[in-house]
Amino acid sequence: MTKKILVIDDEPEVIKILQIRLERDKFQVITANNGKTALQKIKLEIPDLIILDIMMPGMDGYQVCEKIKSDPSTGDIPIIMLTAKNMGEDLEMALEKKADWYVIKPYEYKYLLKKINQLIQRSEKTQISNKKFLVIDDEVEILETLTVYFKKFNSHILKAENGKEGLRIAIQEKPDLIILDVMLPEVDGYRVCKELKENPKTKNIPVIMLTALAQETDERAGFESGADAYASKPFDFPRLLEEIKRLLRRENK
After folding, report:
1. Which of these three, 127, 156, 183, is where a domain ends?
2. I need a labelling partner for 41 at 20 to 30 A (CA). Which of 49, 84, 158, 190 fits?
3. Are 103 and 112 spatial neighbours (Cβ–Cβ below 8 Å)?
4. What is the rounded average pLDDT for all residues in the chain?
């Protein structure tokens, strides 16, 4: 899935040049020319990374960075701070405000691009590392595929091959997120989801419904049963990862 970058700078020319380069490298770019607008856009757009200028009128980059990092719903978004100053105190201040990197203008774009990719990859691992996921699916191949995929993020995977077992594990283990297949033996995924959302012990756990059916009616039924998101088989791993990150961020609000 295309990664989204928010560029915050009060200089239109800087934004324009950086936007052209980033879009050429297949990033989706959103922009803001002041801190207040940026903070609003972050909540709406949830970027994968932020490039933030320090010297801005009104709310400077340090203040913006501090607000982003102190908010649990946005604190894990990596921030690269840009400045025309090459002074030790600026670097110290950026790190104090928990910026993830610091780049001095004028900069070499290849170097900036390298840091962007490194920070996005590190952020993805951090956001879901050590999380507990429950996968409820009667297809052993799906269970094993998802287990292998999430192991690279150091995530703990719980597995259930039917709805009854899935409900028991969910109540007992309280996972951070549940991936639930619709077509299950005995009790289908819609019923399982409804029971999860009606149980006080599991109602706040995000649920992603997984199905081989791509009908609009199936998606509607999933949401009516309380599902938080919907993915079709064969699924796109990057898209699934984005949904998981979005739901985990929402839980931190």
Report:
1. 127
2. 84
3. yes
4. 87
CB-CB neighbours of 139 under 10 Å? 15
CB-based contact 118:87 (threshold 8 Å): no
Per-residue model confidence as pLDDT tens digits over 92-120: 677 677 888 888 878 899 999 999 999 99
Q: Note down the domain range covering 155.
A: 130-251
Q: Please indicate, yes or no, whether the overall pTM of this predicted structure exceeds 0.85.
A: no
Per the CB < 8 A criterion, the answer to whether 201 and 208 are in contact is no
* Residue 89 belongs to domain with CATH number: 3.40.50.2300
What are the contacts of 145-150 at 24+ separation with CB within 8 A?
Answer: 146/179, 149/237
CA distance 212 to 231: 9
Are 194 and 212 contained in the same domain?
yes
Count other Cβ atoms within 10 Å, centred on residue 141: 8
